[in-house]
Design goal:
Blueprint: E1 26-34, E2 37-45, H1 48-53, H2 55-65, E3 73-80, H3 92-117, H4 127-143, H5 153-163, H6 175-188, H7 213-217, H8 234-240
Antiparallel strand pairs: 1-2, 1-3
Length: 252
Amino acid sequence: MPRAIAAYQHHVAITQPPQIDHDPGRDFYVTVRREKRTGWLLGPYATHQEAIDNLSRGLKLAIEADPWAAFDAFGTCSLPVGTKVKTVFGNTEQSNAKEAMTMAKKEAVEKKDRVAKLVGKTLKLPIGKTWHRLFEDNIQRMKSKDGPLPRTDAEITAFLQKEFPGRESKVFATVSLVRGRYNREVKAGELGAPKHVSIAYKPEKASKPAKTAKAEKAAPKVPTAKGEAPAASEGEVRKRVKVVKRTPKVEA
């Protein structure tokens, strides 16, 4: 009775030359052979050893692109320096950069999905909608005379940090930047965009006391008897005194 094969792993043998080619006048490549066809995978490399060191990388990239490559033969070859050959995956630096870019895009998508699923403790809204709710709430508070005071930017930051305690984000402290994006959405007027421009709330500063430093330094007034002139301060005395300049007499 035939049995179904649950899994199968094909052993891929990497073929490479038994000796290292040290010819300085040639460029070296990682290649793949399928029947009579040759594919140029990685390169060019300045030395044969570099090409051999990247055989495993070429095999991995080839199988990821085409699973049937597991049945192909892999090795190295060389061409005269300067020969123009377009390789599938470039050299090591190019393939590394490509892999890093792919991983960065993947991580960005995953991070975006995580943020979209994250909701606040009290409002039960995602981060983006929480920002909108806070700005819209501030607009209503500014219009109202009897309601609670609008939140300052510092209070908005504190609210977001408490609303999302597990998320350490520097964006929470950049309220003005997020407000700018919010206002651009308002001006764009797209469907579903907010309708009113948000303005930063700055409470009025307390008025300065009337008593200044000069007044504090002035001499205190001393109560005097009726009909008696009040005592003058040192500054007033100096103003009243006339300074007479005398010129010396010159005797003949």
